[in-house]
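Entry 14. Structure prediction run on the chain below.
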Amino acid sequence: MARSLERLRTQYAAKPGDMMKRGGPGGGPPGRGMTGKPKNARMTIRRLLGYVGKYWYKLVLVLLCMLLTTVTSLCGGYLMAPIVDHLALAVNPDTVITMSPFERIADGILNRITAGETVQNWIASGTIQAVSAYVAVALLVLAVIYLVGVVTTYLQARLMMSVSLKVIENIRNDLFEKMQTLPVRYYDSHPTGELMSRYTNDIDNIDVMINNSLVGLVSGLISLVGTFIFMVTTSWVLTLVTIAFIPVFLFGGMMIAKRSAKYYAAQQAALGAVNGYIEETVTGQKVIKVFNHESDCVEEFSLLNGDLKDKQFGAQFWGGIMWPVMGNVSQVTFAVTIGVGGILMCTGGFTPGALTVFAGYSRQFAMPINNMSQQATTILAALAGAERVFAVMDAEPEVPDLETAEATEIRGDVVVEHVTFGYVPEKTVLKDITLYAHPGQKIAFVGSTGAGKTTVTNLLNRFYDIEEGSITIDGKDIKEYPRDWLRKNIAMVLQDTHLFTGTVRENIRYGRLDATDEEVEAAAKLASAHSFIMRLEHGYDTMLEGDGANLSQGQRQLLNIARAAISNAPILVLDEATSSVDTRTERHIEHGMDRLMKNRTTFVIAHRLSTVRNANAIMVLEKGEIIERGTHDDLLEMKGRYYELYTGKKELD
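Output returned:
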């Protein structure tokens, strides 16, 4: 039976970071998606300024370009006034022209150029009339002004893009560098999708803010102030008329933006649900077909898809009517301004040129207000994203190595004494664990899921630091070794293999980057991987992608063993390395591991008890405690927990 829409929404609704985990972007308003509001905007802005401030000289040039762009735009428009007034005088010489201060300045400049010898010679020869010469000069000056505006706009965009990309590069580098210092505990408590979204959505939002929103905000403010000054000097009466419509712009814009944000958020959740459902059904196609649930899947997807369509309609409708509504309000403002200006012109208090210029400014005045109101949402989203990025940067790194730590040779004599540990204070995972392993010995851990087997090896690598007790290697506390040196001497073969994009050779060499090609092949032979590698299309130079998707699970595990083999580490940890492969493949892997374990201190976490029979000692863990220890034969004689597991009387949980 198909699930209801409400249940599907609940199960598949997008959560923070889910878009990245599901492999597709979310919806949202133009930009990068909904990311909330910052909790401490002041501190976040201060930290962003630390990145942006490094390029202050470029920002000064950007500001100068903004000023020149705005001035050229305003002055270009203002030159229209004397042109129209001169044409009006040519039509009716009795027209009374009363110029504003800026118009008188523009008219004086144009008259001075027109009075030049070259232009006057053209007028004297009858080539051109005086009025036409004035208009021609004005148009030429307009062309120069607008050309300057084009150049400054280009330079502004180019410089700001340079600053933005450099800032984003620095933030990404700092974030990635910090993440290399974070302890495993941090990654255990933060989903991969959540961390990936810092590099995508959050940093992209910062990029949009620096490159577009800040420029738009500052440019809009400069344009607004400049336009207002020119409007007041042209006609304070018409300026009041224009200002009277500002509340209408603000109220209409806020109402539409509020509705739009609501629908965009709903669209984001609906799109996340669709993407999540698609991913789950694509990866689970075999199960769906086995149980004949194709029709239910189609019905459920139809519900989710229809819900997404409804949400998208609302989001796109309200997002799309913003400009038409604002444009119509602007037209009303323009019509009222022209009407009042016409009345003033009829009463002799206004000129045709001034009315022409003011009409253009009245339209231009509303644009910065709309743009700045829209940029505010983007800036808040970017600051929230920056806050999350900085939260990762502020996370506690791994405890620094002791100043007395020394990278001395490690043989592999491991002693764990009275160790008690819990991942969180309120829950103890290991309780008073004591064990030892001499160089070359094989120690096995068996027990139920959650008994603490993997935790022991995590502590050995110092992925976590213990609360009570001690762990020593060759008689020296592991805290007295540099952390990178300690891990260099402990090779691990995990149940979940991870192969990087690259060749087979490069993946094996990952265990020791300075290994030669001969050493790589020797490690592969030791791990029983050489034969299948040579059967690949390009042998050791075969490219692996998608975590080795073109290899079987057993082949991936053999490469993992080869990677551990090439490290030449004296201590080896095998964490259920054969639990997810078939019996035949298990024999190949065990053969490789037997050769790998030779002369190494080895800790084996086993799911299949057949793999630990030859261990020097087997530790049976339950609820964080070692309840039995001994060789395979010793434990069978005890007829305790291990005996029950081995004989099948009980099974591992």
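The first helix runs from residue 5 to 12.
Filed with the rest of this week's runs.
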